[in-house]
Amino acid sequence: HPLLRERTDSPPPKNGREAQVSARHAVAVSLVRGKAGLDEFSDACVAEAGLRPVGDRLKFLDDAGYSVESASIALHMRGGANYSHHIRAARGGLGHPLRDEDLTQKLETLAAWGGSGCPPLPLKQALWSLETCAEAGSAMRLSRASA
Q1: Could you write out the three-class secondary structure of the chain?
Q2: pLDDT tens-place string over residues 72-99
Q3: pTM of the model
Q4: Contacts of 46 (CB under 8 A, 6+ apart)
Q5: Which of 80, 145, 76 is nearest to 111 (CA)?
Q6: 136/129 Cα distance (integer angstroms)
C-alpha cells in the first residue's frame, strides 16, 4: 500500500531506532539473516557491512489495491530464478492477530532483551487477569517496578 512505503521507505538507517521504521532494512535483514527479531533492529546489526548493498538493490512499488496490512515480495535472482510471496495480513495485525501464546512469548522476549529488570511472570499474570481484577493500575506498577 502506498501509505506503508511512504512511512517506511526512508534513507538507509544510521542506527537501530531508525531501522525499526525502515522497510528497506526490514526486507534486507530478513533476506540476509532469515529473520527479523529484536537483534536485527539493533545498532550493531545496522552497522553490518553486508546489509546496505542488499537494501540498496530493493525497489518498492505502490499498489493502492493492497490493504495496509498486506504485502508482496518478488525476488529476481542473477541465475534467472524468480520467487514471490504474498501476505494478506501481517502477523500481529488486525487481520492476523497474535495468539495468546505468541503474546506471552513476546512479553518474555522483550523483558529479557531490553534489560528492563521487570520480572515477566507477575506482569504476565496481571495482564492476563485485567478483565477480572479490581484495579488495572497494578499491571502498570509491575511494569515500572525496576525503572
Answers
A1: CHHHHHHHCCCCCCCHHHHCCCHHHHHHHHHHHCCCCHHHHCHHHHCCCCHHHHHHCCCCCCCCCCCCCCEEEEEECCCCCEEEEEECCCCCCCCCCCCHHHHHHHHHHHHHHHCCCCCHHHHHHHHHCCCCCCCCHHHHHHHCCCC
A2: 999 999 999 999 999 999 899 899 999 9
A3: 0.79
A4: 13, 14, 15, 16, 18, 19, 25
A5: 145
A6: 9
